[in-house]
Design goal:
mainly beta, about 375 residues, 2 domains, 10-stranded antiparallel sheet, 24 strands, Porin, 5 helices
Length: about 375
């Protein structure tokens, strides 16, 4: 189990996902082919490219190409120049202001384009960067410093606000509203994007609406039914019953859908024997009584698609399940247990999922008797 836990994420992240795309060489030539489109929670440091989908692979970094794109999904442009190196995402910030900077080649993701300025984004662990380019000019970083002073007090170097204010004045967009918005603007995507829209004279609501139309949702809803085989120990009984599931998936990258966070609710029941103490001829005796147990579960889990295409995905996942039970007969106990389910399944055309799961043996708490629960489940889910 330990080996699977370690290897599965590595396999999932290593599995290629080639889509039609292009690279732009430094001489300006655009070469069509196939780009390995990964999750890219952080800005890519390199990109793998093939002229044929099953051909040899070339890896490009930002210093050897002008940019690249995945058709219908995303584009990046290269930037070679001075960048800040300070950490600026709380709480992992420096003690004292860090003005370290380097000349480096990185990829920038276009966020907004307009008549006056273009906005770009780059990020890495503990670091966000925004860049502004005027027209076809070279991007310039919007600088932001967040750091601790003595006594763990936070201080801020909001250089980006002055930079954006000067651009607003240059393009005659300075107003009470933009001044007020700049005062409130954090160094975050939504704030910087809205300021860029104001400098470009773009209606913010219309721009957000247009962007949302072209952006796939990062969530989906799920509902399913399965057959659930349960084994209870002490005195030992088995049961087969339906199980109903509903929940929500959150994608780290909705285009790729290789890494998914799922929160699922489940409801099932099982019929079996439990030991019950009752008066007998010679005192209290323990008898096994048949009873129906109704169980509700909350199951957060992490899914890795180890094979990942638009029409077919094969995944594995693991998580933890908090389970709450009640009985059909009057009982003074409300058992609770935490199980560890693992699951594998296949997703067809992003709409249907078939799966098999196994929950390891888990001990009841607050049950009033010593017993465990273990289950195996198989079924189908609809993805919305």
């Amino acid at each position: 189990m330990f080996i699977l836990t370690v290897l599965f994420p590595c396999v999932a992240l290593a599995q290629p996902n080639y889509h039609e795309g292009f690279v732009i060489k430094n001489n300006g030539d655009s070469v069509k082919g196939f780009v390995n489109y990964r999750e890219w929670v952080y800005s890519p440091e390199s990109v793998e490219f093939r002229t044929e989908k099953t051909g040899p692979t070339t890896k490009y970094t930002a210093n050897v190409i002008k940019g690249f794109g995945v058709n219908g999904f995303v584009t990046y442009r290269s930037y070679v120049g001075d960048i800040t190196m300070n950490k600026n995402i709380f709480p992992n910030i420096s003690s004292g202001i860090d003005t370290t900077h380097l000349v480096k080649a990185i990829f920038l993701k276009p966020v907004r384009s307009g008549l006056n300025i273009n906005l770009y984004y780059n990020n890495e662990v503990n670091k966000d960067r925004f860049f502004i380019a005027e027209g076809n000019g070279t991007p310039v970083e919007l600088k932001y410093y967040e750091y601790y002073t003595s006594g763990s007090t936070e201080e801020y170097g909001n250089v980006y606000k002055t930079q954006l204010e000067l651009l607003a004045e240059k393009y005659n967009k300075s107003s009470e509203k933009i001044t007020r918005d700049l005062e409130l603007a954090k160094y975050e995507l939504i704030y910087i994007t809205h300021i860029a829209d104001e400098i470009n004279g773009i209606d913010i609501k219309k721009a957000d609406s247009a962007a949302s139309v072209n952006r796939p949702s990062n969530i989906r809803f799920i509902a399913g039914v399965a057959g659930n085989y349960t084994v209870n120990s002490n005195p030992g009984s088995t049961s087969f019953s339906p199980k109903f599931n509903a929940g929500i998936d959150v994608f780290f990258n909705p285009d790729v859908q290789q890494l998914v966070l799922r929160l699922e609710l489940g409801y099932t029941w099982s019929t079996g024997l439990i030991p019950v103490q009752q008066p007998g001829n010679y005192g209290v005796v323990t008898v096994n009584r048949q009873i129906t147990q109704y169980s509700f579960s909350i199951n957060p889990q992490l899914i890795f698609n180890i094979y990942n295409t638009d029409n077919l995905k094969v995944y594995i996942d693991a998580g933890a399940s908090a389970n709450f039970s009640s009985y059909d007969q009057q009982q003074n106990t409300r058992p609770f247990w935490v199980s560890v389910p693992v699951q594998t399944g296949i997703v067809f055309k992003r709409n249907w999922e078939v799966f098999v799961s196994y929950a390891f043996k888990a001990k009841y708490f607050n049950a009033g008797f010593d017993s465990t629960n273990q289950s195996t489940c198989a079924g189908v889910k609809r993805l919305f």
